[in-house]
Design a protein that fits this description.
Length: 166
């Protein structure tokens, strides 16, 4: 591997780890939201979303292994800390389905999922030159991310309707 290939592999490793850290933060946030809305339709929705994001996270882990690279503990820890700060920012009250905190939390998830959709598109292009990236069905992963984003956005808009009702 040439020096520039090695540099690019390092950048790709960082890129994958950044997205892995984002998925850790997303799962932490979803766990927190799920605990706040027990026995509700939102809890079921979030549990399903959690399972899907966890499956996407495994694709990232598999790609890191294909590059024989480790997950960045520092990035994952940073994502964990950021999510904890986010909880305070979102200030979601007990079972308060109508709060602005829920709107903001769902917006954060929407943005993260949009980033994941862009990740899959970028990896699809990168797989043309990096054989280790070949294998996942990036078109399907991108489609699934778009569908997740749209479903979360529906919940976000419902929450906004309640939060900002007169």
């Amino acid at each position: 591997m040439s020096a520039s290939q090695s540099d690019n592999a390092g950048l790709l490793h960082t890129y994958l780890n950044d997205h892995l850290a984002g998925s850790v933060a997303a799962l932490e946030l979803i766990e927190h939201l799920t605990e706040k809305f027990p026995g509700t339709e939102l809890e079921k929705f979030l549990a399903d979303l959690y399972a899907e994001i966890e499956a996407d996270q495994q694709v990232l882990r598999d790609l890191l292994q294909a590059f024989e690279k480790n997950e960045s503990a520092i990035r994952k820890a940073g994502a964990w800390v950021a999510e904890k700060f986010g909880r305070a920012k979102f200030a979601i009250g007990d079972n308060d389905v109508s709060g602005v905190g829920l709107v903001e939390a769902l917006e954060a998830l929407t943005l993260g999922i949009t980033g994941k959709q862009l990740l899959w598109r970028a990896l699809s292009v990168a797989s043309e030159v990096w054989p280790a990236l070949r294998g996942p069905d990036y078109a399907e992963l991108e489609r699934r991310a778009a569908e997740q984003r749209d479903r979360v956005d529906v919940k976000r808009l419902q929450a906004a309707r309640q939060a900002f009702a007169r």
